[in-house]
Amino acid sequence: MAPLQNARVLFNAIPADYPIPGETTVYDTSQTMDVENVSLNGGILIKVLLLSVDPYLRGRLRAAEIESYMPAFTLGQPLHSHGIGVVLRSEFPGVEAGTHVFGILLHQEYMIVASLESASAPGVAIANLEVIERNPRLDWSVYLGAAGMPGQTAFMGWWEYSEAKKVAFISTGAGSVGALVIQIAKQDGLKVIASAGTEEKVKFMKELGADVAFNYKSTDVRTVLAKEGPIDIFWDNVGGDTLDAAMEFANNHARFIECGQISGYNHGFQPMKNPGLIFGKCLHIHGFLLGYLRHKHLTAFSTEVMPKLISGELKYREDITRGLDKVGDVILAVQKGENTGKAIVRVADE
Question: Which residues are in the Enoyl reductase (ER) domain (predicted)?
Fold first, then answer.
């Protein structure tokens, strides 16, 4: 067999605000790989099937010298994110061709890793991969969404910090994380207020069980919270003025679960308008990253969430785009809130 194209998506330029497809990231088809004969050096050859596109990727499209909780992508090198691939060839004991793996994968069609414990490529560090088996009632894509990092973020963050009371306000309630938080909060017996940016998403949040769902672009958040609050829990995915409003209409001792602040990813973060409310209302503000909770709550996620996903009790939506060349477009769509459900790029079929 002749060498196959091994297209890649490269980090090409640091964006000033929104990432620009074809400029911030570029689709490169200059490389090939002889998948039948390329040396594996004891490792495995993976065909990339699915890639997750999440809001946090925007934070990695920055200059390397700017510190953050995750390293910057390397200019001139492929992006990488959570993904699912299938092993085409293996020299690693116990891993056979046809095995599926989950973890951080390069945004390219084929990749070689030294083993499932560690892998590397020029200029990037690739996190551990793990063998994954699919429940026949779930598509592989679900393991990048409701059964994967977003679902685990929702469940584990809620379990760790919510101490459920009466009223919860969930921003980005139609997203891959927020949608599951709505359902978990309802299962805990809370009144749920949820916001999103389109009428279609408002309808979806109501289908998930939200008691009050509104479009923040056409309805003032303070008007809603004044009528439906005060709130005991705020699940924050957006920050900015929505966070300020939540603080204004929070009960004493309310709990703020800081999962993300997408309003600041492209145009900079705005300071809190009234930080004195933190001590004035004795607010509990918890920022978290999934990596610090996963070891603690993974078993509970497997027993509490997975059966409900398999049975259909817990609902989710996916927004799947076909083609590695569309990664840049999907990154931009996620930043602008144009996706409906978990954003995934299908690189290839098996």
Answer: 43-345
